[in-house]
Amino acid sequence: MLRDKLSKLDRRVLELARQDDACRLMMTMPGVGAVVALTVRSATRRGSGRRATWGHSSV
Fold this sequence. Notes:
Layout: H1 2-18, H2 21-26, H3 34-44
C-alpha cells in the first residue's frame, strides 16, 4: 500500500519535471533528477517575489 502511494508520487514528480523546459535541461546533468530540478526551479522561478538564496538563510 505505501509502495503504491510512493510510486504514484514518484511518477507525478517526474511528470511535472518533464513538463518544464528548465527542469528537463537540468536533468541532463549527471546527478540531477526530477526532485533536484523541481527544487531549484521553484527556488529560482521569476515572478515568485522571492530571490534565490544560495547557501544563505533568508531570515
